[in-house]
Each structure stands twice: as structure tokens, then as C-alpha cells.
Amino acid sequence: MTWWPFARRGLVSIGRVALVGILSFPIHLFLVILTVFSWLSTVLGVGLVFAPLVQLLVRAYADARRDLAREWAGVEIPRPYRPRPAGAFIGSPRRWMWLVRDPATWRDLLWLVGGAPLGLAGGLAGLIALLYGVQGIVLVPVIASATSGWYGYGVTWPVDDLADFLLVPPQGVLITAGALYGGPWLQWALARYDHSLLGPTRSAVLSVRVDRLTQTRTQVVDAQAAELRRIERDLHDGAQARIVALGMSLGMAEDLVRHDPDAAQALIAEARQASTKALAELRLLVRGIHPPVLAERGLLGGLRALALTLPLPVAVEAVDGELPGRPPAPVESAAYFAAAEALANVVKHSGATAAWVSLTYFGGALYVSVGDDGVGGAAARAGSGLAGVEKRLAAFDGSLRVDSPPGGPTVLTMELPCALSSPKISPSSATG
Amino acid sequence: MRVVIAEDLALLRDGLIRLLGAYGFEVVAAVDNGADLRAALLAHRPDVAVVDVRLPPTFTDEGLRAAIAARAEAPGLPVLVLSQHVEQLYARELLSDRNGGVGYLLKDRVATVGEFVDAVHRVAGGGTAMDPEVVSQLLARNAGAPTRALTPREREVLGLMAEGRSNAAIASRLFVTEKAIGKHINNIFAKLELPPSEDDNRRVLAVLAYLNA
């Protein structure tokens, strides 16, 4: 029965719209009255407690309707409410002001007011259209006309003769089919209404984004300052100190070289060792700031070089063989260190026997996936390496997705929005 | 012995010229960029080249690429590559043609003049000179079977062999006889199931290929 899925879809959506429309009418009315009364009661002082309580109820109800819009009509409605400030407990003026100042509070009220008649009208319209169509098919009008002598259906009004009688069922079929076809659309249209008032406005979306950017910028500035302090300290205590010692050894050797060549030679050997150690420390430091191989070979080559130093086989590939260009240096570096941290996690925690890294550029973003065949159960817990990865990526508006069921396998996907520079001129061609 | 030097920092270039000159090398060309290096290598066909990885104009791995390209045209052209950092990736690329006559060392090693000059001679003679850091990374990666079957002494010998040192050099460093080293090496080859070979250079390449796999 090929028509059954179609009919089912129509019946289900008409049923839902009718149920919600009819039930929501009294609910909306009740909530509107409650809301208005709660705000007015602020004059008496009790509103300080009453209004926030009512808003809790309103928002819970709106949330339920957002869920329904997503489940039933596939319309995603993000919550538009501003984050609650610290110390805004129910009864505090801060809580009250937070609610009053949030435009979403008033848009909720508007939605309640408009949604009551609209929901009811929509719900009844679907139901009535469907019942009227079915009525035509099962010949109720004929029976009615036979008993009372005066009845009509659709365009045949009244039903007088056989021709009129024959026109009734096809009309009923058409109207039923129309109602069934229109049901999902009606459901969608009402969800769009919800979306228009329950979703965030453009300015709300932007303000959330500004908040997020402010937060990540602060994190980046802090992290950078800490990083610079660490580099300064490493240089000061490491390479600089060793070079000072080296200078001292050489100076003493200079004095001794005439009358005690053996002692001078020992000092010079000491100086050479100090220079080797200073170089080793500088090398380690440079690798932590910006790995030379990353500058020389780009992300793919840099990660391949890194993979060769790990104790398990790691296949590093770009989906199309090569990335179509190079990301800006800061993004490249962030992607490298994020992937390096992810691989370090694989080595430390996963117990994996093999891992892979896959790079691709798609739709204006660089994607780096790191997978392993280990035990799974990875999560970006606070203070964990993965939380660090998340922060690193957030600085570039990127994100981390962790897919790691217990028992594995684990796949981390890092997304970094960026533009690629046009493919670099291969360095080898410059030598020819 | 004729040598070509490629190094873009004047201070280091002059140092290398002076150092190699003092040890009897004849510096036939000293260049400071990748394009000149490749031209000089193919024009002079030196007995050995000492090349910095990072050169102008791109300041990436210009020197390495020029050396590999020149070796593709003149197989076995001995090249000793110097760098501020060592990468397994680069070592692998240099060794991939399996022709020998390859060196890859940290720039710091130049300070130990005797060993450095020894390495240049070794590379010129078709041998190998791998930086101890490359070798220790390779050994760390291969910490699992079957290198686990090696005794600590055998691992030590394997490491020195992978650096490209001759039996005599290994023996004197470990204060044992050459005969004892020969025995260790036979054991290592048996345990790693590598085909035995009398030729030193071939043996080193076999070990590096094994560790690199």
C-alpha cells in the first residue's frame, strides 16, 4: 500500500498540530495572565520572587516547545537567553534585572500571546479539513440529504440528483488528500512561527559570539603571556647561563694557556661541552615554539616527521594526497600542536597498536582527524590534554569533536576555519 | 680531497672552510643558496659536500632538496648534511636511494673536530654518518621485538654501527677487541634475521633500513 506512508505522515502531523493547538490555548492564556500579573506584582515587592519563578515556568514550557519543533518539524530553535550572571538567585534584584533586560523574556511573552490563537486555528483547520474530506468519502452527505431533504457537500450544494451524488466522493478524496498533504506543512509553518519568536535575534546571536570571542581572546592573551614568561625563564636559566659559563671557561683558559697548557685544555673542553648543552637546550626550546620541520615542510610534512618519532606506527595522510594550499602560519601551528597533543594522548593513554592522522580542507575549514585502535573513553575533561587542545583551537574559532566509546576506537576531529594560501611554489623547483 | 660547502651564514661558512682547510681538504666551492649548490655539485663533482639543510631563498629545506636532486643525477655523490635539528623524515629521505655516501649530523657535532673530520672522511669513502640523536630515536622506536632479544651490549654495538662507525672504531670506543665486535655483530644480524655481509657500508645500510622500516 504505497499511499499508507503518505497518509500516515499526514495523519500524524494533523493529530499533533490539533493536540498541541487545542491544549496550548489554555496553557498560553494561563501563562500570559500569570506573566503579566507577576510583573505587575513587582510594585508590591513580591514580584521580585514571583516574576523569576513564573519565568522559570515560561522558559521550561518554551524549551519543551523548542524540543517539539525539532523532533516533529525538524526546525532547530537555539535558546536565546543571556547567560545568568553570578549571584543572581531568585529574589535578588540582579535576577529580576537580568530577566527584564533580556529581550528574549519579552519575545517569549509575545510568542505566548500570538501562539494561542494561531495554534488553535492551525490545529482546528487541519482537523476540520481532514474530517470534512472523510465525511465526503463515506457518503454522510448522501445519507443526510436522504433523511432531511436538504444537504450539500463541496461545490454541490445542495445535493439534488444522481449527478450531484456522483460528484461527492471524488471531492471527498481530493479534500482528504489535500488535508493529508498539507498536514506536515502546517506543522512546519507553526514551528517557523515558534522559531521567529523563540529563537535568538540576529543581534542576540552576535552578542553571544562577542561574549565567546572576548572569552577566548582573554585566554589567548593569558596563554601567550605565560608562554613568553616560560621562554624567557628557559633562556635565562638554560642557554644564557651556559654561554656565560662558556665565556668564563674560555677567559680562564686564555690566561692559563701559556704557563699551564694542560689546565687550559681542560677548560676549553669544558667550554665546548657547555656550548653543546646550550645548543641542545635551544633546540628543545625552538621545537616547542615552532618546530623547524613545520616551517620547512608544512603541516603534512611536519606531522609525518612527528609520527616517525612516536613508538607506534602512525599513518599521516591528506585526503587528496596534499592540502590544496598552506593555512596561515598561526593556524598551521595551532593545528600541528593540537594534533601533537592528541597523538601524545594516544601514546600515553590509549594502549593503541596503531594510529592515523588525516588532513582535509573542506568548506572553508581545515579538518585534522586523529584516530587510534585503543581502549577509547577519551574525553575533554577539565585540566586534561584534550581540554588544552580545545582551548588552543578555540583561539582560532575552531572546535574539537571527541568520538571515543568505551572499548574504542577513538577518533578526534579538529576543525579550524581558515583560508588557504595558493599552493606554494615547491622549493625544489627553485633549485633547478 | 675536494669538497663543496653550502652554508648561508658567513660566520659558519668561513669556520667550515678554515676547519676543513686545516685538515687537508681542498674547498673547491663555497655557496650560500640551493640553486648554486646544485650547480656546484654537478659542475665540480667533489669528493664530498658539506651542506646546510636550510638555505635561501626559501629558508626551508632547500639544501636537503638540492643534495637529493644532485644525488639523483650523480648517484652516490657523497653528501654530509648539517642541521640545527635532526628529523627521522630527512634521514629516511637521504638514505632512501640506498647508495651510501650519506651523512646527517647536528651542527653541534662540528665542535668535536676530530669526530667531525672522521665523519667527513667516512662519507667521502661511501660510508655513512648518522647523528647519535637520529640513531637513539630509531632505537627507541624499535624498542619492541625483535630488538628486545638483543643484550644491552649488542644494542650498544647496534647503535654505534647505525651511526656508521667501522668495527675498529666501535672496538676502540667500547674498549674491546675487533674480534669481539665481529662476534656481537654476527649475533645481532642473526637475531634480526638480516643477511650477513662482509662489506661495512652495506651492513650499515642494512641496519638503518631495518630500523627505519
Could you explain how this protein is built, in words?
The complex is a heterodimer of chains A (432) and B (213). Chain A is α+β, with helices and mostly antiparallel strands and 432 residues long. Chain A folds into 3 domains: 3-198, no CATH class; 204-289; 294-422, Histidine kinase-like ATPase, C-terminal domain (Heat Shock Protein 90), CATH 3.30.565. Chain A is 68% helix and 8% strand. Chain A has a 5-stranded mixed sheet, with helices on one face. In chain A, helix 2 (47-73) packs across helix 6 (162-198), helix 4 (103-137) runs antiparallel to helix 6 (162-198) and helix 10 packs antiparallel against helix 11. Chain B folds into 2 domains: 2-130, Rossmann fold; 135-212, Arc Repressor Mutant, subunit A, CATH 1.10.10. In chain B, strand 4, helix 4 (88-95) and strand 5 form a beta-alpha-beta unit. Chain B is globular, with a radius of gyration of 17 Å. The model of chain B has no long low-confidence stretch (mean pLDDT 89). The chains are: A alpha+beta (432), B alpha/beta (213).
Task: Give the overall silhouette of chain A.
Answer: elongated
Strand order of the largest sheet of chain B: 2-1-3-4-5-6
Mean pLDDT of chain A: 86
Number of strands of chain B: 6
Radius of gyration of chain B: 17 Å
Total discrete domains of chain A: 3
Shape of chain B: globular
Main beta sheet of chain B: 6 strands, parallel
With helices defined by DSSP (H or I, 4 residues minimum), what is the helix count of chain B?
Answer: 10
Distance between the termini of chain B: 34 Å
Order of helices and strands of chain B: EHEHEHEHEHEHHHHH
Using the 3D structure, state the CATH architecture of the largest domain in chain B: 3-Layer(aba) Sandwich
Average pLDDT figure of chain B: 89
**Biggest protein-protein contact in the assembly:** A-B, 25 and 32 residues
Structural class based on helices, strands and sheet pairing of chain B: alpha/beta
What level of helicity do the residues of chain B show? 40-55%
**What percent of residues of chain B are in strands?**
5-15%
Low-confidence region ranges of chain B = none
Assembly type of the chains comes to heterodimer
Query: In percent, how much strand structure appears in the residues of chain A?
Result: 5-15%
